[in-house]
TrEMBL record:
<dbReference type="InterPro" id="IPR050855">
    <property type="entry name" value="NDM-1-like"/>
</dbReference>
<dbReference type="InterPro" id="IPR036866">
    <property type="entry name" value="RibonucZ/Hydroxyglut_hydro"/>
</dbReference>
<dbReference type="GO" id="GO:0016787">
    <property type="term" value="F:hydrolase activity"/>
</dbReference>
<dbReference type="Pfam" id="PF00753">
    <property type="entry name" value="Lactamase_B"/>
</dbReference>
<dbReference type="InterPro" id="IPR001279">
    <property type="entry name" value="Metallo-B-lactamas"/>
</dbReference>
<feature type="domain" description="Metallo-beta-lactamase">
    <location>
        <begin position="98"/>
        <end position="285"/>
    </location>
</feature>
<dbReference type="InterPro" id="IPR030829">
    <property type="entry name" value="SoxH-rel_PQQ_2"/>
</dbReference>
<keyword id="KW-0378">Hydrolase</keyword>
<dbReference type="GO" id="GO:0017001">
    <property type="term" value="P:antibiotic catabolic process"/>
</dbReference>
<comment type="similarity">
    <text>Belongs to the metallo-beta-lactamase superfamily. Class-B beta-lactamase family.</text>
</comment>
<protein>
    <submittedName>
        <fullName>Quinoprotein relay system zinc metallohydrolase 2</fullName>
    </submittedName>
</protein>
Length: 356
């Protein structure tokens, strides 16, 4: 198989990124989705028949190459595939591959759930889909605003998919995307970030929505302030699979960017309102799938501990700086990346709960 690619270099994207020694700038081959063909000639003919606008915008000329690397995915239920990101902080070695992503194949269409930290991940996810089906990818569903879940979406949008998200995501991401992209460029390197653009949400979910992929429906639910203010879950009723995004963590220390009380309330509502229908849940980080509700027990224990210890520190009159090292310290040996995330969580929880 062959695919169309466009070579984009840092010198072309911004002179500030050009090598100081005057050597050739580092480059990356960007996938132009939708031109795949069994032969190079077929791919080239497709490019000639419908030249991509993206190539003109980037100032380059696309050509056809053998298909590049695809993301590794696991089929966790019939037609439901998940890529397990590393339990790690984004860096130049992993290029931001630190979150779980997935897709669901229906009788007529495909929906993607989360897209990774950069365009290269959307490209590799597209290849994984194309290895399994030639059905159109019609929807990209973003479970929340965090950069490790949203910045591969534009690749799939170019291929014709409509991005779907919580009604609050567009504004929340607009307020943060500059800082997110700057941070990612520093962490994973500017070359890995080449071609990355913010998603353009066209379907904003206020409360609930459904997507019919043909023979299977995805049920989308927007939640109140919890992990973030933009959390959205995706339930595939055909297999009983819930994509929870970062409303569920496995192994990776949970990251609180919203409300600890709200997060616990959402977990309660999920178990109360849909507990009997959910057979498995895909966390935003960690295992590809966990049983429900047992898979949520470690997260609930952590959040309960976080809230309890925070209230105790406030009641004891501790200052924030003195309270943070003590809050949820008993959980340290049960999670990875604890020192990177628990102090932030303690700070958020203290700020929230001191006004109860």
């Amino acid at each position: 198989m062959f695919e169309a690619v466009l070579t984009l270099c840092l010198g072309a994207a911004g002179a500030a990124d050009a090598p100081a020694n005057g050597g050739p700038p580092p480059c990356r081959d960007l996938l132009l989705p939708g031109y795949e063909a069994p032969t190079e000639a077929g791919c080239t003919a497709a490019l000639r028949a419908a030249p991509p606008d993206r190539a003109a915008m980037a100032g380059g000329t696309p050509d056809c190459r053998p298909v590049g690397d695809a993301l590794a995915v696991e089929e966790i239920a019939e037609g439901v595939f998940v890529h397990a990101g590393l339990v790690a902080e984004p860096d130049r070695d992993n290029r931001g591959d630190v979150a779980n992503l997935g897709f669901v194949i229906g009788a007529r269409q495909v929906a993607v759930i989360d897209t990774g930290s950069a365009a290269w991940m959307g490209e590799a996810l597209w290849r994984a889909i194309r290895q399994r089906t030639d059905k159109p990818v019609t929807h990209v569903i973003l479970t929340h605003m965090h950069p490790d879940h949203v910045f591969g979406a534009s690749v799939l949008e170019v291929a014709g998919a409509a991005s779907v998200a919580h009604a609050g995501l567009t504004r929340a991401l607009a307020d943060r995307q500059g800082n997110y992209l700057e941070s990612l460029a520093r962490l994973i390197g500017p070359v890995a970030l080449l071609g990355t653009e913010p998603p353009q949400v066209v379907l904003a979910v206020e409360d609930a929505a459904e997507i019919d992929l043909g023979g299977r429906r995805l049920h989308l639910r927007a939640w109140p302030l919890a992990h973030t203010g933009t959390d959205l879950t995706v339930f595939d009723s055909a297999t009983g699979t819930l994509f929870a995004g970062d409303l569920l963590f496995d192994r990776h220390t949970p990251a609180l960017d919203g409300s600890v009380r709200g997060w616990l309330a959402v977990l309660d509502r999920l178990q109360r309102e849909a507990g009997g229908e959910i057979l498995r849940v895909v966390p935003g980080h960690g295992a590809t799938a966990l049983p429900w509700p047992d898979g949520a027990a470690p997260l609930r224990r952590y959040l309960d501990t976080l809230a309890r210890d925070t209230r105790s520190a406030i009641a004891a009159g501790l200052r924030l700086s003195d309270a943070v090292p003590r809050i949820a310290a008993s959980e340290a040996d049960r999670w990875e990346l604890f020192d990177a995330y628990n102090p932030r969580n303690a700070t958020v929880a203290f700020t929230e709960l001191e006004w109860e």
